[in-house]
Write a structure and sequence with these properties.
Layout lengths: L2 E2 L3 H10 L27 H5 L3 E7 L12 E7 H4 L4 E3 L1 H4 L1 E3 L6 E4 L5 E5 L8 E7 L5 E9 L1 H4 L4 E4 L6 E13 L13 E14 L4 E9 L4 H5 L2 E11 L5 E12 L4 E2 L7 E8 L7 E9 L10 E4 L2 E5 L9 E4 L13 H5 L5 E7 L4 E7 L13 E6 L4 E4 L18 E3 L2 E6 L6 E7 L5 E7 L6 E5 L1
Amino acid sequence: MKRNFLNFKSFAILLLALGLMTSCSSDDSSPSPEPDGETPTDPDPEEEEEARWITIAGAQMGENPGDGNGGTLIYSVSSTDAKDPSVSIDPFNNGFTVPSNRTARLQASEDGNTIFNISYAGDTGGNYTKYKVEGGQTFTQEGTNVSIEPYVGSAPRWIKLFDGDQTGAAVYVSTEHVIDDNGTAEDATDDTYVRTEATMGIVTLDLVNSQIIEFQEHSVPLTEEEESNGYYISRIDMPTLNAAGDKLYIGARLSKVDPATVESDREGAILGSKTIVLDYPSLTNPTVITSTVGHGNTNGYRSINAFEYNGDVYQANQGDPEGSHILKIGADNQYDDSYVFNLDDALGVEEAYILAWRPAANGKAVLAYRHAGSAEGAAGAQGFFALVDLNAQTATLIDEIPYDPDFYLFQYQGFAVDGNEIYLTQAPVGQDGNIYVVDTETGLVTKGAELVNATGSHFIGAW
């Protein structure tokens, strides 16, 4: 029989983890007896280790199934209950509504005890808030709101840097076609296209004290040849800090116009994957590096697209004509083109497209993807999960997870990492599903708590 989770068990586990289940007087080192005469025991170390919160997020339907435009609801359970298939989680009826006009962009602290949010679009777009995770639908706001809208707009692309939950970074890029050096593209019929100016803005945010740290704007040019052929950086996202903590990498998407007409050109060659490199924390001295291994974009979409591991940064690319790659940026802040990890080859598919991914500390990751053979479902192409090894450069379909044509992962955002275990959500659009827990070291997959869905809605991850 399924049981609805009422949060009592998780609350008790949390109290155990905090060591609050024992009571001592200030002048007596011996434990006070319980009413029945028994002496309380110390918390079980294994229970302490299990007391991590796992927060599940669901995106509600707006006008169309799977669009996620109806807002975001979150609900938290203990890691013990997340692994228990008799637990039932229903965020769409019982969850906490995260402030956001559309799908919220969520981040979590490394221990799972805090959720960070920056509202996306609408009147509150660009507002940063953080919440203490207390189980179930209880998320208590901590600190004050701060708006980054004046710096990066009301629909910011932002990420939490991996610096001990201290800093967030948000970015934007604006573009303008340059005609005869100083004109605009509106009446360009008789004019000469010169290039497209891409202006990048970046702001860093103190997550602890809820205040702006630094803001910089830069022009981000490509090579003269690339620009004369109509290429420019049209979108940026997913800032990632290097191991030394002195450089920030920002993923980029390239677009192209036809220089003769200044109209969008989708038939041009796809250039090598590019990343913007900035000095950190000053956010100055931008340069652009280019991969000769991967082609296509590195900005990702809703989830973190690059991670530091073992001194290097590993980055996914999208839209690569040879299938998505995981690329490597070395400690010298350049692409390591000796590292070749192609998902088509590793998975035996065509046109693999990395939708989201997350490594554990051992260099093994869970990766969400689609490919040319994906069925077309209610909201888009069917998604799959793979277990990836960055060192061995291997990827294997996780076939213990059920797949459905309506299993849609394009908007997937988060994986919860607890040691070598990675928590993920599985549920087709509008259908119930489950949490699954992948032990990245052994490959063991555990089917966990039931996820109760709502019409047209879908789950976007675990934190």
